[in-house]
Amino acid sequence: MAVEISTSINIKEPRWDQSTFVGRAKHFFTVTDPRNVLLTNEQLGHAHKIITDYRQGIVSPGLTEDELWRAKYVFDSAFHPDTGEKMILIGRMSAQVPMNMTITGCMMTFYRTTPAVLFWQWINQSFNAIVNYTNRSGDAPITVSQLGTAYVSATTGAVVTALGLNALTKHVSPLIGRFVPFAAVAAANCINIPLMRQRELQHGIPITDENDNRLGESTKAAQQAISQVVVSRILMASPGMAIPPFLMNHLEKKAFLKRFPWMSAPIQVTLVGFCLVFATPLCCALFPQKSSIAVSRLEPALQEKIRASHPGVERVYFNKGL
């Protein structure tokens, strides 16, 4: 006979300890699992029912704790945490690996001509815009104007970087030329993410004490959060864009690819995908989702306010985003 599980399990938080890198890595391996892209509407609906019922104190008959956590991660993979709406399929975290491996693999295969650079950098930034819109915060919504500005600026930055570096690397080793797409992606991330989150840089992000009591909004915390996300995103792209160029440079000298040159793109996509399966969750886990900053590093006015109302608080916490 199945034992009914408790209704006191906190499914608002991740299953594993988020104060350790291993706990965060386990969480993000589950969140970014590409298999979730293949889930049917029926499976998503079933997970949705389990979670909404559980939040109301209703436990489905025979439900085990493992099944509850599985339903939570299926639910989180497809439904927006603030609005509750079903997210666009290619904008979900579970679509990051299959989408990025295809786009990145093609960017790194077709990088030699200007039309190819323009096309694939445009495709990449269009995908980034969809991801950013899909995962927008309900507390600080992205306007169409902000989305458009970030999209155009990031695409322009990526294309200018790629074309400029292509011109500079024409007379150097072909291997160095293979790293041009990585430089373009890094430049685009440095433009795109701050622009997408400009509202936070202007007005601050919510900060709390360790008990989740809101203490105000801080632009200094926003700067730290966005810096951490930019570093994570660039490092996330690094293995998939740094390791395959060496391998492809070696393989293209072999008889197989000289005989079947059309195999270059599939091999590159596969290599990038293998790297991304590990790099995506591990780089998301580099910094705690609930990051912290010392009160002494906040804006002077906010420091005074916190010390007056909460004299014992030395560190404050905030959600860094992804």
Describe this structure in words.
The structure is a single chain. The protein contains 13 helices and four strands. It has 322 residues and is mainly alpha-helical. A two-stranded antiparallel ribbon has the order 1-2. The protein has a two-stranded antiparallel ribbon with strand order 3-4. It starts with 20 loop residues before the first helix and ends with a strand.
What's a concise summary of this model?
With 322 residues, the protein is mainly alpha-helical. The chain is built from 13 helices and four strands. Its main location: mitochondrion.
Kindly state the percentage of residues in helix. 55-70%
Characterize the overall form: globular
Please give the count of helices.
Answer: 13
**Cα-based radius of gyration, to the nearest Å:** 22 Å
What are the secondary-structure elements, in order, as H or E? HHHHHHHHHEEHHHEHE
Question: How many strand units?
Answer: 4
Low-confidence stretches: none
Beta-strand percentage range: 5-15%
Largest pleated sheet:
2 strands, antiparallel
**What distance separates the N and C termini?**
42 Å
**Secondary structural class:** mainly alpha
What strand line-up does the widest sheet have?
1-2
The overall pLDDT, averaged over residues, is 83
Organism: Gouania willdenowi
Main location: mitochondrion
Subcellular location: Mitochondrion membrane
Protein name: Sidoreflexin
Keywords:
mainly alpha; 322 residues
Topology:
Layout: H1 21-31, H2 41-55, H3 65-78, H4 96-109, H5 114-134, H6 144-168, H7 174-177, H8 180-196, H9 198-203, E1 205-208, E2 214-218, H10 219-251, H11 255-259, H12 264-284, E3 290-294, H13 300-309, E4 315-319
Antiparallel strand pairs: 1-2, 3-4
